[in-house]
Design brief:
This protein has about 500 residues and is mainly alpha-helical. The chain is about 70% helix and about 0% strand. It contains 21 helices and two strands. It has a two-stranded antiparallel sheet with strand order 1-2. β1 and β2 form a beta hairpin. The chain is globular and about 55 Å long. The relative contact order is 0.11.
């Protein structure tokens, strides 16, 4: 990487900027943090993007297109400044879409629509921060998230692969720090959780229909590697608008989790939920994503145990036990006949080469983005680096950030659990739904990369933080005499639900 020193300087600035946008309540520090974070993003982009790619941006048509995009972004920023509660919905609408882009010799799928919406949201938020005091963010989430992102940024100083680490920071971690900082401080009116749920289910249903159409026509959108794979198999995998079936399956699992939670809490009728679930499950089947199927099985079982009736819990426990026993027997037979590497689709080898990197660098790891290159150089020298990328997020964190990273990662998970438990005492349905979304991404990340590269990971936690901040604001108003305890207890509940006792207060006969 020709501008490695510039990238490392930008990474340190980004680490400082992430702390400033996540932790302080003072508007001056907060605005300064967004400025530092923007500077870090710009410097990382300069260090990464080759001059030949920058020269292509100087063409008249490209400049005209960029001008239109800037004007559209300014228009969106104006709308979000007037209606800040629309920000989470706008970000969620843009979150899934990845656009193929050539950067030098690399071919990447970038979240370009999300970056555009996020830039507009930052402008709108900064304008609001100038004229009003920013809302607080619970330290249970802001502190561990800031610690993990700051550690990742600083680790670029010793990263084994500065270029890949810079990509991880500029396109994922630093932008998502800004996303969390904005959404967590957004007011959360009662209609917003429902709007977010409807948006996510509508997106995943649309993706599912596209996937079923691909299965019927045996055609794909832009997925060249999957086309090659399908040519050598007896079955046809689909990926909808995504680059690979596992990413497609993850989004389907998110929609299924939200639908099941909504049904269990009476937010949607069975006549509506059943066909939507059928479409999503059918598309999930034709993705043949084993990681997504395992994930949604675990999440739906968990939802039934947490929010289901006593009879439903018994059925789920019996069915789950039967499935686990059957799966164990099948695994035993296959392991006896096939190697573990073949049975796990090469994941056992990926675990092995990643674990050895952690053993060689236990304290601080090999730096952000450095695990694939370190695995190739230290363990599997004869194989290409892309064949050594870990598909298990905890192992990737251990290899790249060492024990320090593991502690930050565990602190983030503990903070998420603590915040969701606190939210459950105020709005159980919202807490369980957000927990289902977060759990879907977490469980899926144990088999497939993308936990910190998916904006919904920190976005879901930001919704929990926003709900806690909204509840805190209502509590303060009740102390001032402008609200009541009943107003706080029924926050986020529909008018029809307010006459019933809170779920946390109900006792089963």
């Amino acid at each position: 990487m020709p501008h490695g020193d510039l990238a490392q300087l930008a990474a340190v600035l980004g680490a400082v900027g992430s702390i400033l946008v996540l932790l302080p309540r003072h508007r001056g520090l907060l605005l300064g943090g967004f400025g530092v974070l923007a500077a870090a993003e710009a410097l990382l982009a300069v260090a990464l993007i080759p001059r030949s790619d920058l020269e292509r941006l100087q063409r008249p048509l490209v400049l005209a297109a960029l001008a239109l995009i800037v004007l559209a972004g300014l228009g969106l920023a104006y709308v979000l400044a007037r209606r800040p509660t629309l920000t989470p919905v706008a970000l969620l609408l843009a979150a899934p879409f990845r656009i193929p882009v050539d950067l030098g010799s690399q071919h990447a799928f970038l979240l370009l629509p999300l970056y555009g919406v996020l830039a507009a949201a930052v402008l709108a938020f900064c304008w609001q921060a100038v004229t009003s005091r920013p809302r607080p963010v619970t330290a249970w989430l802001s502190v561990p998230i800031a610690a993990f992102i700051a550690l990742s940024g600083i680790s670029l100083l010793w990263s084994r692969d500065v270029e890949q680490g810079s990509i991880e920071l500029v396109f994922f971690l630093f932008p998502f720090a800004a996303l969390f900082a904005i959404v967590a401080r957004t007011p959360l009116p009662r209609w917003l959780p429902r709007a977010l749920g409807v948006t996510l289910v509508a997106l995943t249903t649309t993706f599912a229909l596209i996937g079923l159409l691909q299965r019927a026509t045996h055609t794909l959108l832009y997925a060249p590697s999957l086309e090659v794979e399908n040519a050598f198999t007896s079955y046809f995998r689909v990926s909808s608008v995504f680059k690979d079936p596992s990413l497609f399956g993850r989004y389907l699992a998110l929609g299924i989790a939200v639908l099941v939670a909504a049904y269990l809490y009476g937010r949607v009728r069975l006549a509506i939920a059943a066909p939507l679930l059928a479409v999503s499950f059918a598309a999930l089947w034709f993705s043949y994503s084993q990681s997504s199927m395992v994930t949604i099985f675990a999440v739906v079982a968990g939802l039934a145990l947490v929010a289901g009736t006593r009879e439903m819990r018994r059925v789920v426990l019996i069915v789950a036990a039967a499935i686990v026993l059957t799966a164990t027997a099948v695994v035993a037979v296959h392991v006896r006949n096939d190697s573990s590497r073949k049975f796990t689709s090469d994941r056992s080898r990926l675990v092995a080469v990643t674990w050895k990197v952690f053993r060689n660098h236990p304290l601080a790891g090999v730096g952000v983005g450095g695990q694939p290159k370190a695995s190739r150089e230290e363990v599997a020298q004869r194989l290409a680096a892309s064949r050594n990328r870990s598909h298990t997020t905890p192992l990737t964190v251990a290899a790249e950030l060492g024990v320090l990273g593991i502690l930050a990662y565990l602190a983030l998970l503990a903070g998420a659990a603590r915040a969701l438990l606190a939210l459950a005492r105020r709005d159980r349905a919202l807490s369980v739904t957000v927990a289902a979304v977060f759990a879907t991404l977490f469980i899926h990340s144990l088999f497939y990369a993308g936990f910190f590269e998916d904006p919904i990971t920190l976005g879901s936690l930001a919704i929990a933080a926003a709900a806690l901040a909204t509840s805190y604001g209502n509590r303060r108003r009740s102390v001032d005499g402008t609200g009541t305890a009943e107003d706080i207890a029924t926050l986020g509940r529909s008018p029809a639900d307010r006459s019933a006792p809170l779920a946390a207060d109900r006792v089963e006969p």
